[in-house]
Fold:
Amino acid sequence: MNRLTVLQQLIEQKKAKTYLEIGVSTGWLFFKINAPAKVAVDPHFAFPWYNKVRRLTHAGHSKFYEETSDAFFANHANVLKEIGGVDVAFVDGLHTWDQAYRDVLNLLPYLNPGGIILMHDCNPPNEACAYPAKDINEYRKIAATGAIPGYLNSWNGDVWKAVVQLRAQHQDLVTGTIDLDWGIGFVYRGSNNHPLPYSLSDLQAMTYSDLEKDRKNLLGLVPPSYAASLINHLNV
Ligand SMILES: C[S@@+](CC[C@H](N)C(=O)[O-])C[C@H]1O[C@@H](n2cnc3c(N)ncnc32)[C@H](O)[C@@H]1O
Structure:
């Protein structure tokens, strides 16, 4: 199981009509996802030739925005209304706490009733992967100096804090993390019955060692098998 199987399963279970992916890169995931209407957002599409061809053949039912998610929400988010709102979204753009959190908040007004947002990179396996850099280039630059012990060339950043913030500060959202594929966060509308007792300044002070001490609780970590039952929690 991975992000592709989890997303595709949800799309089929929900009979979802629309899919939005923020952070698309080579299109490995985007072009495999099967949904009636899809929207791709990334400031630098890195499509190999066969995905450049697919981009042309998908033009009828897929839309491509080569810009940051912030620019997309500022200038082109109307397209999400035009396609009938978002049923399933995948947030996998800039791997920073504030950007991942903002992507989720910006998406919410367009999320259809019963819709769901999944987020990648929510469960970093070690401190090096969770390094809170500004972006991947800065991460690699710092790693090249030897300042990131245990560097694996895999960057999850501090996206995990977006999950903690959603679990702490949003009473009307249910947020958790499926323990597979670097941690697949999920967010849907519903009652957050046990909000985490953390303020913004608590969150700012949190470090990777806090995550290690209380990972299951902070992330709302659930086993991979939970993915199949997520659909039962969405008020469709
Ligand atoms: C890990 S890759 C995405 C992988 C893809 N979702 C997959 O599963 O195959 C992250 C992508 O986020 C893009 N990105 C970086 N900053 C972004 C931003 N501010 N808004 C949207 N995408 C961004 C990068 O260009 C990169 O292609």
